Amino acid sequence: MATYKEAGVNIEEGYKAVNLMKEHATKTYSSAVLNNLGSFAGMYELPKLKNPVLVSGTDGVGTKLKVAFDMGKYDTVGIDCVAMCVNDVLCHGATPLFFLDYIACGKLDSEQAADLVKGVSDGCLDSACSLIGGETAEMPGFYKAGDYDVAGFCVGVVEKDEIIDGSTIEEGDALIGIASSGAHSNGFSLIRKLITDLQADFNGEKIGNVLLTPTKIYVKTVLELMKKYKIKGMAHITGGGFYENIPRMFKGDFKAVINKNSFEILPIFKHLMSLGVEEEHMFNTFNMGIGFVICINKKDAASMIKDIEAMGNKAYEIGYVEAGGKGVCIK
């Protein structure tokens, strides 16, 4: 008699994985979560706002996963998955509420899958977001044994009259950059082409572990800043680097002028340039050491930088807004 297990899907291992995952997910619950994992859908009670607008974002970890698998380290890339979503939602002033993940694989290993979800849980805790559900799909013949794909989506909320959409940006406004933690989760197809020995030493560490440094989550820092400052626009520096992401905060005909000497370019990016990547291409692919950019009135720049640093992050005034033209000028 043919069985599902003979076809390559181990239901028992799936049950084990779910039980292990529940332990991590329940750590993220707030009083707004109305049911437990195992229901057909997650339920989350909206906070009492006058005119709430739901803001959503979805993303995956990309080929950074291959580095994780080659290094045998599964417990950090889930943080990347959460970060890529919550940081995007944050750009419009929204507070992340809940997260759902999707994990697909060729052959399920419950311990590895639970490590992946542990990372998701850690990312949710870091962004005060609840992990209320997800899906684990075992697809033999579609994915190779040992391969996983990890994606997810986040839903946040903001008062309609507090949405940050770039509509108040003016010429002369300052651009504040908050430091990144490394390559985050972008450009890894290029990174893997350039760096083939993940065990090689890089400043006293295996370079594979350096590359697996999780994407920084900016939620708690920025939500605190929003209480004090009139933030006009924000950009999460992901795929496309400075050139594609910073202009996304503008509504009008503006250009971002960036001083490339105003912040620390992280060693990993200097290393990639030494392997043959031109500087302009680097700024169009990677975050170069700045993971999040905030646009505010010039008079508030020094105070905001001081507050960001008091919360444990490095920050810099990296440039300003210029009227006319579009895009980014790096000089």
Automatic annotation (TrEMBL):
Coiled-coil regions listed: none
Q: Has UniProt tagged this entry with the keyword ATP-binding?
A: yes
A Gene Ontology annotation in the biological process aspect, one of them, is: 'de novo' IMP biosynthetic process
Entries under SUPFAM superfamilies matching the protein: PurM C-terminal domain-like, PurM N-terminal domain-like
Q: Where in the cell is it found?
A: Cytoplasm
Q: Name one Pfam family in it.
A: AIRS
Q: Domain named PurM-like N-terminal: which ranges?
A: 51-158
One Gene Ontology cellular component term attached to this UniProt record is: cytosol
**Catalytic reaction equation(s):** 2-formamido-N(1)-(5-O-phospho-beta-D-ribosyl)acetamidine + ATP = 5-amino-1-(5-phospho-beta-D-ribosyl)imidazole + ADP + phosphate + H(+)
| UniProt xrefs under InterPro entries | PurM-like_C_dom, PurM-like_C_sf, PurM-like_N, PurM-like_N_sf, PurM_cligase
Q: Which UniProt keywords apply?
A: ATP-binding, Cytoplasm, Ligase, Nucleotide-binding, Purine biosynthesis
Protein biosynthesis found in the keyword field: no
- According to the entry, every stretch annotated as the PurM-like C-terminal domain falls at 170-328
Q: Name one GO molecular function term.
A: phosphoribosylamine-glycine ligase activity
Q: Which pathway does it take part in?
A: Purine metabolism; IMP biosynthesis via de novo pathway; 5-amino-1-(5-phospho-D-ribosyl)imidazole from N(2)-formyl-N(1)-(5-phospho-D-ribosyl)glycinamide: step 2/2
Annotated TM spans: none
Q: What's the superkingdom here?
A: Bacteria
Q: List the EC numbers from the record.
A: 6.3.3.1
- Family note: Belongs to the AIR synthase family.
Name-wise, this protein is Phosphoribosylformylglycinamidine cyclo-ligase
